[in-house]
Design a protein that fits this description.
alpha+beta; OB fold (Dihydrolipoamide Acetyltransferase, E2P); 2 domains; 3 helices; elongated
């Protein structure tokens, strides 16, 4: 084999390995990607069934119910237009309260209840996750336009 052919073969093999590495990285990134949905989007069936995603909004006042085991908690997340029931088993963040912003990660059950595997509370009284704030703002605009008609 001529040196020129060896060089071309090495370059082709290097490109093939680089492409395979890029495909593996993109596949790992895609499988760990988690999307965010508001309660209004979930009510409109825009959220995936059987896949993990995040829901965000406000913990509805008066909806927090603790289970007898001390770890299971039921509450509702709202964007002021729609509400989704959430069940979580675990230790809640210290800043988790009714009427405050929350983001929960998990899956939507067949009965429409969101089964959370992780609950994140707001940072301080001025902070709300940008996606949750945007979802609440959009829901309030939609609700005002329906009322105005």
């Amino acid at each position: 084999m001529k040196p020129r052919h060896k060089r071309i073969t090495l370059i082709a093999l290097g490109m093939l390995l680089l492409g395979a590495a890029a495909a593996l990285v993109l596949n790992a990134f895609q499988s760990n990607l988690v999307f965010f949905f508001s309660p209004s989007q979930i009510a409109a069936n825009e959220a995936p069934r059987g896949k993990a995603f995040r829901i965000g909004g406000m913990v509805e006042a008066g909806s927090l119910v603790r289970g007898n085991d001390g770890l299971t908690v039921n509450f509702r997340v709202t964007d002021t237009a729609k509400t989704v029931p959430v069940i979580y088993t675990g230790i809640l963040p210290d800043l988790f309260k009714e009427g405050k912003g929350v983001v929960a990660q998990g899956r939507l059950g067949d009965d429409g209840t969101f089964v959370a595997t992780e609950v994140l509370a707001k940072h301080d009284e001025n902070y709300m996750p940008p996606d949750a704030a945007h979802a609440i703002e959009q829901a309030q605009k939609a609700q005002k336009s329906v009322v105005a008609k």
